Amino acid sequence: MMSKAMDLSRLLPLRFRWRGEVAAAVYGELSEDETRSLEAFLERAPHARVEFESMKAAHGAMPDVPPQLGIDLAPILRTRLAEESMRGTADPGARRRLAFFATASLAATALFCAMIWQSSQPMQDARPEANRTVVAQSPMDAMLREAEEFIADRNYDRAYRTLEKAVAQFPGDSKAGGAQLKLADIAFENLQWYDKARTDYKHFMDTYWKSVTGTSEQGRIKQNWEMLEEASGVDYASLRDLEKANRAGGESFAKMQGVAANYPGTIVASKAAEKMADAVVRELPSGSGKVVAMEAARGRCTNAVAAAQLDFELGCIYRDNTADTSRARRQFEKVRDSGQPILAKRAEDALATLGN
Q1: Does residue 137 sit in helix, strand or coil?
Q2: How confident is the model at residue 11 (pLDDT cuts 50, 70, 90)?
Q3: Distance between CA 175 and CA 166 in Å, rounded?
Q4: For 193, which DSSP code?
């Protein structure tokens, strides 16, 4: 047992001496008088109270069942203190310091052992088995997160390579289809690697098409692939011209008109016509629809081929968006009679879809 009660307030300026009392209290080695004296001291010394509670918490973290090592550390501490007492240590403060440091070291060791013991136990879940939700991790997750970080940094080359590698390593993963589509979009929209994009979209359609069944993505993916397939016949020159026109700033309308004129009847020309309508819609009253915007763009055309292309687009809008068959027919007949052979053939085919 420790010595009889002391006036602990006398020891306050000596930072380490009172810690022996604290350490002994953690292991229940103080008499009732000593405990009362310690409590009185802790009331006057908030910083000592914090340390006392911390040591109690560390001691409390040890398991109720002794760890695999089978060591009860309290007897070791008592034996060690008794040995020091037998040696006749003259300085009571030294004994207190010894108690503190020995206890702190043993407590740390005990906590470490407890952590090892705890980690060896099976994890318990208080929830009924039926209520548990298991979230499966995809093997691709780490690579997909890495690709997203590259995209956020606009490092599209590295993002593409990472996604390409992910799909190659885990082609049957549930997230492989999304990764394949993402790399195709990056190749097409960000890197302008048109030949790769064409191959990547085709691979997606051949392998992962079911993943987008019934969604709006089907139309977008199919159109992108068809546009690439069509542009491959001119070595993707039409797509490169469309991209340049898109970056032309204030000259965008004129540049898009040139694209529509140079590649009439193509998907690229249709995209150029849409961009021309987008360019003028800012000048129109708020709420103006596609028909009004396209008509305004048609009115600004100075190239006959481009004008015929926009007339054809208007016919498609009337047919597909407003179901106005009579106006669609008039537009297609106008294009058929425009004298532009490629667009005239497209208009004849469109008229055939309307019937009599």
Answers
A1: coil
A2: very low
A3: 10
A4: -
